Description:
This protein folds into three domains: 11-203, 2-Layer Sandwich (Heat Shock Protein 90); 221-328, Ribosomal Protein S5, domain 2; 349-385 and 395-595, MutL, C-terminal domain, regulatory subdomain (Ribosomal Protein S8, Chain: A, domain 1). The protein is elongated and about 95 Å long. It contains 22 helices and 22 strands. It has 595 residues and is of the alpha+beta class. Bound molecules: adenosine-5'-diphosphate and magnesium ion. Adenosine-5'-diphosphate binds at residues 32, 36-37, 40, 61, 63-66, 74, 79-82, 96-102, 145. Magnesium ion binds next to helix 2.
Amino acid sequence: MTGSSVKILPGHLANKIAAGEVVQRPASVVKELLENSLDAGATRVIISIEDGGKAAITVADNGTGMGEDDAVLSLERHATSKIESVDDLAAILTYGFRGEALPSIASVSRLVLKTRRQRDEMAVVLSCHGGNPPLRTFEGREIGTIVTVSNLFHNIPARRKFLRSRTTEFRQTYDTLQRMAISRPDVGFRFISEGKTVLDLEPATLSERMVDVFGDYEVSGMIPVDEQNDILQVTGYIGKPSFGRKVKPQQFLFLNRRYVVSRSLNHAVFSAYEHLMIKSAYPFFMLQMTIDPSRVDVNVHPAKLEVKFEDEGAVYRFLHSLVQKSLSGTGHVPALEVAGAGSEGESSLRFTPRQHLWNERNWGGRQGDGQAVAASLMVGAGEQDRGNTGAKPEDQTEMHPAEFASGPICQLHRKYILLQVQGGVMLVDQHVAHERVLYEQIVHRFSSGDQPGQQLLFPQTLQLSPPDALVLTEMLPALEQIGFVVRPFGRDTFVVECVPHGVKEGNEADVLRGILFQQRDSGTRILPDSRDVLAKSYSCKAAIKAGDALSDPEMRTLIGQLFATKIPFVCPHGRPTVMRLSLEELDRRFGRSLP
Ligand code: ADP
Ligand code: MG
């Protein structure tokens, strides 16, 4: 170590290092600038990005603004107006308090800050170039602050290279904004990307803001919650179990208006759903916790996403019982009443969105009246039904369709169908079996040149978030090939005009949404010739699910249709649809076939 010595880092170098922690990508810049605007009391903020924020990010607010001296100071490291002593740190209610964001961002971009207070005539304009002191000019402007950050990481090529595509960076920024928008309904937000307004949110109440951000449909699947004890207040929304998603869930936890992540608190919420949803589904939740700031430590992570509670156990228990209680409230879970009494174990399979819809719309709330379902299975069968009476698959001589018309058959755990076949017994997975049936119907229509879709008598509208609308727009040509005719209808809204034959009435928009979300979360690109991918996705989303009760005629129809398909033994994704156990095997296992 000879010759080396400990040195104080020059300011601009320290800023760059701090930037590594605070500024990862355009979304983190947006987050910091937004937080500053909100800390400055802004009631309206306009955020604009170009090239996903890689080229430029602008955040303009109508907050208090800064005087000339403060503006210069704000660009210096650890300059903050928000805390003066260690004691203040314990009572932090502002978003920022480190005084790091502006200097850090300025050190890795070109930053221009324009700001004006009410009492000043002119706005001060500070332009930062690398490590040099900012250039100072003045101009006429309204009260408030506007910060423009361009060429992020222009001086750190390694970081610049690390930035992702425009769409990915856009998505990240959108998520950041969405969190802010739901935690601060009192503030108006406008988000402009590539010159196009993608969000335009007026100041509103929380319930209005939820609808503005998530749309009517999603909000109809939420239960409002609001409760407090002596240390904690919780307000927000939790998803009805029947709205659970198999895809990446939307879950938001806020602590004193700050978005936080906490595995343990997530678990507190999840576990309250334990017997109400199928295992692989996730509930929506958006919970805003308010707690005395001295009881939490938000200073543990530079991006301030993680928190430490003085008594995490108490918070956990409070959240868990709050959610549990809200879910058990009658009237919130219509599927529960419809499904009738049953053990918890049984009900864990009941709450699927489809079941819920079938019960309400097709079965008129009565359970076990399977005729509507059976009829729809038959109607949906089309060619397969005709094939059924004609040639049967050669290698399946023993599976004569006539067998399915009579003989013992029963549903097990609302998931599998058990039936007697010639020479043994067979178990069928109802979901994958129906998937195979629907898939072949679609494929048959491709090859026969038949119209793949049927016109809806009452076209349905689909309201989406802006990023989902982009994904759907890309999918439209391929969707049309499998029978979905969907037309853009104003910003982020679509009209579903045509759906493939066999989609259950009333379910059209749900099936389409399911395909969209699956596509979105798989992240693969949809090309115009991706119809097979979509046909598989469609058959999965439109098929009956584990948890759907089937009547005797429904089961027989389904099995009949399955064995009329070309490849009855595997679903389009390659999972087995049936298992057969021969009488010989049964006899052998029971010790009957001793020679
Ligand atoms: P912090 O938010 O941690 O205090 P920042 O570097 O983000 O640190 O900001 C430094 C200071 O600059 C803030 O404390 C605040 O006084 C001032 N400031 C930053 N942005 C704005 C704004 N949009 N309006 C008014 N003041 C601002
Ligand atoms: Mg800040």
